[in-house]
Amino acid sequence: MTLFDALDLLGVTACAISGALSAMNRKFDLFGIFIIAFVTAIGGGTVRDVLIGQTPVSWMQSTLTIYLIGCVTTLSIIFRNKLYYLKKSLFLFDSIGLGVFTIIGVEAGIRTGLDPIFCISLGAITGCFGGVIRDILCNEIPVIFRKEIYAMVSILGGICFLVLNAFHVKANIIYIATVLLIISIRLLVVTYKVSLPLFTVKNNKES
Amino acid sequence: MTLFDALDLLGVTACAISGALSAMNRKFDLFGIFIIAFVTAIGGGTVRDVLIGQTPVSWMQSTLTIYLIGCVTTLSIIFRNKLYYLKKSLFLFDSIGLGVFTIIGVEAGIRTGLDPIFCISLGAITGCFGGVIRDILCNEIPVIFRKEIYAMVSILGGICFLVLNAFHVKANIIYIATVLLIISIRLLVVTYKVSLPLFTVKNNKES
Amino acid sequence: MTLFDALDLLGVTACAISGALSAMNRKFDLFGIFIIAFVTAIGGGTVRDVLIGQTPVSWMQSTLTIYLIGCVTTLSIIFRNKLYYLKKSLFLFDSIGLGVFTIIGVEAGIRTGLDPIFCISLGAITGCFGGVIRDILCNEIPVIFRKEIYAMVSILGGICFLVLNAFHVKANIIYIATVLLIISIRLLVVTYKVSLPLFTVKNNKES
After folding, report:
1. Of A25, A39, C132, C177, which residue is 20 to 30 A from A203 by alpha carbon distance?
2. To the nearest 5 percent, what fractions of chain C are helix, strand and coil?
3. C94 burial type by CB count under 10 A (0-12 exposed, 13-18 middle, 19+ buried)
């Protein structure tokens, strides 16, 4: 197993825990918890694969991911009242996940021969759409549209990846640099409570 | 037409009626009723086809399904105040539909050469996602995440299918056994009001 | 650039503005505004491409669309308090967009060799699903299910297209006729406040 695969599994783990917590907070039943954990972990990659036509989608290529999500979700349910103490580790895992998913998405775009702007888009889709689908299934406005600059961090990571790639930096170094950049920016954002500006319309009449 | 095709059409009919009823309960207009009926009947199969890359999706392969849904929905609108008396038949149709859709999904997975766990997943996706998309379009939390063990029944049916298939049982017998199993479990579940456990989190602070 | 491409860009422009306005009305942050504008403009085409398996989806084939949406959205944010005065132009743009998207969808169906009823469906999906996805992301019941006969107009346009096409009318004339028909019907609908009938159920007990 390469460094990259290990990071990927860490990301899947973080997303599955965050999904399971969301579902338990909304009083979903046992099956609902597993589905939301699963969708949060693989939703972004699924949307990416469907958009570029890489099917069967990637989580169907190996059983490792699905069993990992199953175990992580089971453990999350058992230790649901202790997870609060892991909050900082979870934030770290989650940032690693965002970084790794961004990289996987950008690489998929490069492999498909797409324009750089679409590679960056695919990185952000892979990184963020698991959470978007989770929020839609939970019948909420996706949180990334309202207060997180999650997606913006992923886009900056994607740009960093493409720039380093253009200079033919070695793959492993690009991976680490991108993930570190994403973790650092997220830490900065949370520490200094940075948020994107809001714009509201005065004449609030919809056409 | 084979026994299997007949069962399929019965399933589509049940889903279309259930979709039309949902839409009328939510005061959708004429077009909305048709769309929700249609999406409930073919949504699960569409998601399955898109995930495994079998496109154009299956409901575009033959016009029979779309005309059947159109007729069923028209009749549902005309007899909307009588449908209540059909409640028991509808429950039966719906269970047949769940069974048949599960079988179609599992078979699609086998044909694509996927691992058994993904075949079972595709069975459950085909059986349940029509209802999930219906609930999302109606802006509700999908009911299968909260009180129905619909999906669990579909998964048990999928396992039964794969086990019988591994013993080289004849296709028609597998179909009937799986559908009968699914109908029986659903009847048991409804009769004894079985439901999956809920797990709630004490420290209800979202990260 | 052909007349058709010019009309397409006008349609994309109208959808992006309508998406950006929706997002600003819901107090989404900067990123959310861009995403909603983008999804409204390209969502319908994306669903169509995924259903017929034409991937990578069409907005990834050329960078023109994505940059146009970026510019339009930026301008919409800057002039957000003036857009109200453009209401009539926006309605016109939006109708042109509906017409052009309908044509593109129907043509994609013909190219894929589908039955006419599916070509018409693809036209309506291309024309309407951008708005459906926008409403789902904004956590609302899609407006087309409740008070607009948007979709019905698109279906009539699709039928007009197919009839003219069957008589081997020249492509450019078909385009103009279809778009004009769609604009006229929408104007009539809005002027005379036509709406589709509602059907409600007396025994309002869900099974």
Report:
1. C132
2. 75, 0, 25
3. buried
- Paired strand residues for B198: A29
Tokens of B109: 């997975």
> pLDDT by residue (tens digit) across B120-171?
999 999 988 888 888 888 888 787 776 667 788 889 999 999 999 889 888 8
- Measured in angstroms, the CA of B114 and the nearest CA of chain A are apart by 7
Residue numbers in A near C23 (CB within 8 A) = 145
How far apart (Å, rounded) are the C-alpha atoms in residues B41 and B130?
A: 6
Contact A30 B196 (CB under 8 A): yes
The first and second tokens of residue B118, run together, are 């993904």
Whole-angstrom Cα distance, residue C124 to residue C127? 5
Task: Give the three-class secondary structure for A137.
Answer: helix
Q: Is the Cβ pair A115, C28 closer than 8 Å?
A: no
The domain limits of chain C are 3-191
Query: Are A36 and A61 in contact, with CB atoms under 8 Å apart?
Result: no
The ipTM of this complex is 0.81
Q: Which of B137, B135, B156, B139 is nearest to B147 (CA)?
A: B135
Cβ of B30 and C197 within 8 Å?
yes
